[in-house]
Amino acid sequence: MQTTTITIKKAKRLHGEISIPGDKSISHRAVMFGSLARGTTEVTNFLQGADCLSTIDCFRRLGIEIENTPERILVHGKGLHGLTAPSDILDAGNSGTTTRLISGILSAQPFVSTLTGDASIQKRPMKRIMEPLSMMGAKIESLSGNGCAPLKITGQPLHGIHYHSTVASAQVKSAILLAGLYAEGQTMVTEPALSRNHTEIMLKGFGADVKSQDKTAILTPGHDLYAQKVEVPGDISSAAYFLSAALLVPDSEVLVKNVGINPTRDGILRVIRDMGGNFELLNEKTSAGEKTADILIRTSSLHGVEIGGEIIPTLIDELPVIAVLAAYANGRTVIRDAAELKVKESNRIDTVVTALKAMGCDIVATDDGMIIEGGRPLHGAVIDSHADHRIAMSFAVAALVADGETQILGGECVNISYPAFYRDLKNLICP
Ligand code: SPQ
User: Fold this and answer.
1) Which of 188, 208, 231 is the last residue of a domain?
2) What average pLDDT does the segment 24-45 reach?
3) Taking the model in full, what pTM does it have?
């Protein structure tokens, strides 16, 4: 149930620095792979958002002891074959990543489990994992018969496949690779465009035999996983809101610290450059295969761009806030090849178009994206977040530049990926 209305007014200037909380995708994977590894995995800068807490809850129910303190998470892994049958239904909450990745693992366990989630999860498509996992020998049933959760998963002996995915989805790829850890023979996944590769990087770090060849990930089973220390980089998807706000609010300068800039996630930086955005990467580092940097960003005059093709998976979750940038940029922006937006926490084509229209933007939805005629001044409006964290945060940014006041209904959904979002944003706003 949506309860909190957040009110945001036009801002004069943003100034200061912000450290970005841990990456959601990497936090999930650290708990999952730590649970399947032998020994204790220590995770620092873990994202304490509701989605990642759902992953912790599921693995606790599967018999894994996980200590969660503000400083670090300790996952006391029991090896690939250490999970035990859950006594209750597994609840993935609002998290597509938890639902899809854990399904790959559960498909190979010697027990039956039932997996569900909130109203949004029960509408998101699961056939995309049910089909390839079934080809590997899995037995997965959608209990409502509509290809969505709740899912009943009866573990089976699996065999490797070479799957040619029709969608560029890290969740599909990861579910198959995780099932592949238990399968007989090699598992390969070829994607139409490369999706985020955190699973490949981190599984390799834990000792799995995973290779990437262009758009194909190849996993050869037969290797145990061993506990690791994982320092989670800041989430570029969360950084995107501060980068966008600093670009749009006049006279701003913000240092956004510790941002993961893995090339399969950095599409927003390439788009900001193309739009004429002014930023510098500082203090670049690589830790456990993941690149990070601090980003110094200033107010910039932006112009419209065309966004489509292979860049889309590298910025899919940033498209709502990119649409906000485009609304304030001069000229036309076309976003295409992004039909995946329709099957996220909300239909993000519809929710973005409706909300930007309400603020006075000239925008139309297309089948696979949107066309935005930017540069008109926008005004405050009442925006329904549809309980979608990315919509709430994107329109908090839009509100900073709109005339008057904006109200975001159900604004508490930022808890999914960024519980301190409004506080951190407020700290950058100059009086
Ligand atoms: O986990 P969930 O709910 O699917 O979260 C989202 C988000 O906006 O935070 C998508 F709605 O991120 C996905 C992302 O879109 C996280 C993810 C991952 O960690 O593997 C991959 C992407 O999804 P997909 O379907 O393209 O694999």
Assistant:
1) 231
2) 98
3) 0.98
